[in-house]
Amino acid sequence: MFQPKSTHVCTIGEESSGSFLPPLTPTSPLSFRCKRFLKKLILITEVNPQSIEYFRKISAIQDARRKQIVSGSWVIHPFSTFRLYYEMWMSFIFFICLVYMPMEASFKNMLPTNLNGLDSFLCTVCLVDVLMNFRTGYCANNEKIVMKPSSIAKHYVFGIYFVPDVLSSIPEMHQLNLFVNEEIAEVLDYFAMLKIVRILTFIQYTKRMFAFFNVKAFAFLMIKIGLMAFLITHYVACCLYFLPILFRHVKHNEFTRHNANPQSRSLARFINFYLNNSYSATSLVLGVEIEFNYKSPWITYIFCIIIYVIGKFLSTYVTVILVDVLRVYNCLETKFYEMMSQVDSFMTAHQFPLVLQKKLQDYYHYKYRGRYVNESRIEKFISEKLRKEIKYHDCRRLVNSVNIFEHLPQEILEDILSYLKQEIYLASDVIIKAGTVGDGMYFLSSGTVAVSSPSGKEICHLVDGDYFGEIALLVPKQKRIANIIALETCQVYKLERKSFKKVMDANKDLYRQILDQAKLRHSDTKEIERMFIKKFEEP
User: pTM (2 decimals)?
Assistant: First the structure.
């Protein structure tokens, strides 16, 4: 039987490659291949998660890519493949800069001289990043993508990042063999502290990298809080040592850092000073205490007060975030227990017997498994097609266990399953009572039921994948011929009479299978009942 394809395979030919660039030929020169490869890297792509987040559909991304090619511009699209991997690379660079540059500006007279190579490397990469920002488009207020070079340059130069980026990326003058005034050289070293303005950019790049690798939002939130706490504490620790040096520089015109005694450059000495300042910085950030040292200049006290206030806000913010995360994480359990509290109040108000109370509690525990979900609210805004697919997935255990469903195409199964209604029966519940008018048939998804004749003779047990109750729907004026009792908690799906008729009218093969099974069951039940009654009538 024909099975529909689970995925769509497009058979409409494209007039060019997926990138809309001129196709390669076996005779294409190397220069053309390289140029095409570089052009493809800077085009907007579906691979970049920001593209889908911004445009929300593939056709819009393809249209933007086509316009970018037609323009002939070599400006890098902010949602391109190159930008995706470049931001991953810069997230690592920014992290190293945010750790090393404040430390180098503050503890320069203690750090070993063999770290000068790292300083030159970071400054070079950051200067290249400045140039890259002049050639990369940007998203203006989440409304449009700006790709015009003059607008990009204006946006960057007059923004908050250009001046700090340039000043913090200037390498040390003596490494470039440039003999400048000692005062100017030391002031240029101080500018490395400005790299802190890129902490939000680092967090943003890290978030995009995690989104690309499908890292869960909760994991990113925990990592984000940890990184922010570390970098802020690290920066404050560096500032606590840096500010007195800056004060002496401004007030007393002292320049001692470049001419520091080589013996003072000790790793142990640096670790000792850094840990002491880190301890004080942690106290400030957490808002625990301020240790006064009356030998410190006034600017240190002002800085400590500011950080103390900011630390109070940060600790409160982190606390609120963590409480909110825990609340969201446990909200389903909380809602379940709120619902159960209402159920208990309802049972108490109506003075239900203990047996009934126990059954009602067992019902809700089985149905929700300790996590309340408002299914009707979730399904309210989804399409009918998607609702059918969800129903098919939800009933996959039933579909796999019911033999009459084995050879039905998925589309037909989705139609049938859309009519099914889930019901839960507890142990000893009577699902069907013999002699009553049948209003539907049942498919047993999980659990065990007992089938007995009207007189009480047990006929058989039905388990997962079995169905029952179809006889009363197939035979005109036929009432229920057997009792169906749950032996344990059972999950069944009910197909009502009117829905049964719609399904059977559209699926004649299925109707014949159920009819044959119903006739066999009807005759077997009648025969067992006749023999059971005859046994008791015999003298």
Answer: 0.61
